[in-house]
Structure formats: structure tokens, C-alpha cells
């Protein structure tokens, strides 16, 4: 442990950005909680904007209204 | 908060149905728990029927046996 | 299926409110997606306000600042 | 990886039963998917019976009706 | 209940392997915790190797370095 | 969005450490993905060491063997 699950909307996040999220989140857990990187798992799950709701509306609709 | 994760099988649920799930779930959390819609997140994750098991069998197999 | 995970802050939500969340969420999934109540699972997880962050602060801190 | 999350009702499951769930689930992932035990994480989360709903009712109510 | 979520990397796991994971995990929960298979849900979520990090690196990078 | 779930063993992590995890994770998501802090939710779930398994053993057992 730890296990970190990062859920974000499917917005074409690049492999480099994902790698940086994983690197920096692991580093953060080492710095703050002194965790062992070797047993630190980070999982990024990407979600369609039709499948994510905030304030009762889909992110698709919220973005269209901007 | 709150955060609600709805996992369903990948059955071609329409954008309209997803929007209604998000609208109605948010409304429910406002009605029952007086939550702020602006900080209420709903995430729908769709799962292949090969990847969902009930009673020890995949949903694909259960449906084929019907 | 479906499986619904509802995460809320630990604010003394009553057994009656939880029962209503479960009843109404199940009813919603029947109405919108025609799901079978018998295989519809709802899980409510309560989270301490020190353990929930919005806008970079804990809910404990956000509430104290109000 | 993998990461396995096992959610069960809070029914006084013993430390021995938890250890057996963890041992056997890991063994299963090695056997079926040839996974490395050293990077296989199993997390058991226990949920109050008021907080788990099936068929629109809490497990507390379902058990009381038996 | 129970509900089991199995997260694995997207490595072309076959339908047969998924069915065996579901069968054996359900059997395990019956054996160790005497659970009812009919209300035992198993969900397998597959994650791209760019989206899974261990020891601060993506599985894609870790595998490339082998 | 995003929503981040951080699962760690129940090791007496202080309120200050939790606040720093939340602050730094939010900052990271702003820096790497340009996310809006106001809609960024971080949830920390603490798990008993009997309930977390690595390499087929509970963390309780692994620590006792050190």
C-alpha cells in the first residue's frame, strides 16, 4: 500500500501527463507518509463526459453551456 | 461531496438515460441529505458483460442461458 | 448489477435516511434502466470530514471557516 | 497490480478468515493470470448492514424479516 | 453482498480467464465466509498500462525497461 | 472532477498529514491537468492492517515478520 485511484474525464490526457501524475503522486506519498514506492499503486480511470455529473448535469452539458 | 459511483453493464445506455440518472441521483441527495448539488459528483462506469459476475457466472453466460 | 457506491461525509446520517437513499436509488435504477431490484446493490460509505478534501482543503477546515 | 477490493458486511469476520481470503485470492490471481504476488494488493472493506442495500432494502431490514 | 472489484492491466485477458476468475472468487467467498452466490457480485475492470503506476513509474515504462 | 481516492493502512495518520495530502494532491492536479480546485474531490480511506494483503499475506503478518 497505498493504493490511489484517480478518476478524470476522458479529455485526451497524454501518456506524459499520466506518467507525471503517477511520479508526483508517488513522491507525495513518500514525502508525507514515508510510504514505500515499490508497494505504492496508482490507477488512473478515464470517464466519458456523458458519464460524469456535477450539480445534476453531465459534464458534456455543462461544457456545452459555457 | 457526496461522490456517487454507479457501475452498470455496457448495454448501450443512452446519453439521455445517463443524464436522467445524474439529475435524479443528485436530486435524491438534495432531498434526503440536503447536499449541495454544486459539490455532488456522480460517475457512471460501464462494464462489459464478460467482466461482471453474479452467482459465479458472467452476465454474458447468464443471459445466454435465458 | 448494478452496483452503486455512495460516499458521504460522516455527519450522523440516520438509519432511516440510509434506508430512504437505498430505496430511492434502487427505484431510480428500475425506472431509468429497467434493472432488477434483486440484483441491485447499494453501498454507503461514510468518510470523516478530515478525510474529505474539496478545493485543496479538508471539509473540517472548510466548515470551520464558514 | 492487480488490486482487488472486497466489500463485505460488517459481521465479525475473524482475522483468520481475512488472512485466508487474502491468501486464496492472491493464489487465484497467480494461477489464472500468472500475476506477481509481490505486486498483488487485496483490500477488504467492511460495511455496516444499515449501509448495504439489496432489492431496495437495507441488509439490516432484510435479515430482520427472515 | 459481497461485492468484489478486481482491477488488472489491459493485457488481453480472455473471456475464459475472466469466467474462471469470477467462478473461483465466488467459490472462495462461499467457502471462507459462507456467502450466498446469488448476491455475490464480481466486477473486473481493465486498466491501460499507461494508466497504472507502481514505484512511481507507469507499467508501460516498467515493462519497457525489462 | 477529478475525484481521487487514496487508500492507506490505518496507522494513526494525523489531521495535518491528511490536510497536506489533500492540499498537495489538488495542487498536483491543477499543475499537471489544469483542473479546477473547486470541483476536485479527494477522499482518504483508512484500512485496518488485517484487511490489507500484499504477496498473499496481511500487512499485520508482514510487519510482525520484520
H/E element string of chain A?
EHEEEH
The oligomeric state is: homohexamer
- Which structural class do the helices and strands of chain A define? alpha+beta
Average pLDDT taken over every residue of chain A: 97
Shape of chain A: elongated
Terminal CA distance of chain A: 40 Å
User: How many domains is the backbone of chain A divided into?
Assistant: 1
Give the amount of beta strand of chain A, in percent: 25-35%
Give the helix level of chain A as a range of percent. Answer: 25-40%
Q: At the third CATH level, what is the topology name of chain A? A: Macrophage Migration Inhibitory Factor
* Uncertain parts of chain A: none
What's the CATH architecture name of chain A? 2-Layer Sandwich
Largest sheet of chain A: 2 strands, parallel
Largest interface: A-F, 25 and 25 residues
CATH classification, class level of chain A: Alpha Beta
Amino acid at each position: 500500500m497505498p493504493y490511489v485511484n484517480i478518476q478524470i474525464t476522458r479529455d485526451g490526457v497524454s501518456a506524459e501527463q499520466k506518467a507525471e501524475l503517477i511520479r508526483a503522486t508517488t513522491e507525495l506519498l513518500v514525502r508525507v507518509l514515508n510510504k514505500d514506492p515499490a508497494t505504492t499503486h496508482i490507477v488512473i480511470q478515464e470517464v466519458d463526459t456523458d458519464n460524469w455529473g456535477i450539480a445534476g448535469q453531465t459534464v458534456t452539458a455543462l461544457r456545452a453551456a459555457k
